[in-house]
Task: structure prediction
Amino acid sequence: MHLRRHRIRVLSVNAFLRVLTLFAASLPVQAISEPVSFGDVLQLRITEVAQTLAYGSSPQNTVVNIKGSDSSLGAVTLIHGGCWSNAYDRNHTLPMAEALSTMGYDVWVPEYRRVGDEGGGWPGSLEDIVAAVEFVTDKTGQPTILVGHSAGGHLALRAAQTGLAIDGVVGLAPITDLVSYGAEAGSCQSMVAPFMGDETYSPDASYRDASVTLNAINIPVAVVIGKEDPIVGASQIAVFDAVQVNTVDGAGHFDVIHPETEAFSAVVKALEAIKGEGR
Result:
């Protein structure tokens, strides 16, 4: 009798679990609220063990490599934003890097000198990005696609003007014009002067040189930006042709780096389009 009662209890538990699973599957999927915040991005987790390598002599000159089991889609160098400030590092972009790696990309995420680091700012930050991209190219044996967010988008586009061997650039809410951006109100906008080594905002020829000159870029470029972006506005993407820009309704500044958003789907499509142009 004891064995029989035990068998009946186990079967009942299993039956309950099956019912619970079916009930959970019938519930509507809870979509992430958009636009997402920087805090939402920070709550994302990464499970992949990353490889970290040095590409230069500065403590900031390191690059994380997140390589999936299938990297048939080629190499991507993901340049994080954060207003060019060392208050923000690459960690918040690692979940995005992992998401891209699961899709078949070999993803590299460099750290670089920023405002607050010795040698950071203009042109040191750009010099680090160029060195990191050359390092990735040497390690992978193939040109990479640059993906840059916000200030990282500025550096990605500006690096494309240097003649690097890269397949294309995907700018995610990229800052392009330091003269006009630095004249705007806002905490990120106020970092333009320190980035340029100014105590006060005093735009001159160096600001224009540090800005993006689109006709100096001879590779495919795509831009994804949220229509509700409060940090990088439409004026910063006015330089691009309409066909190069995907403006995502309802998305903000951080949706483009959050793997669970509609804006991130647009980023993936932009990457696919650039891969297609490179064939």
User: Anything to note?
Assistant: The longest strand covers residues 166-172. The chain has a mean pLDDT of 89.
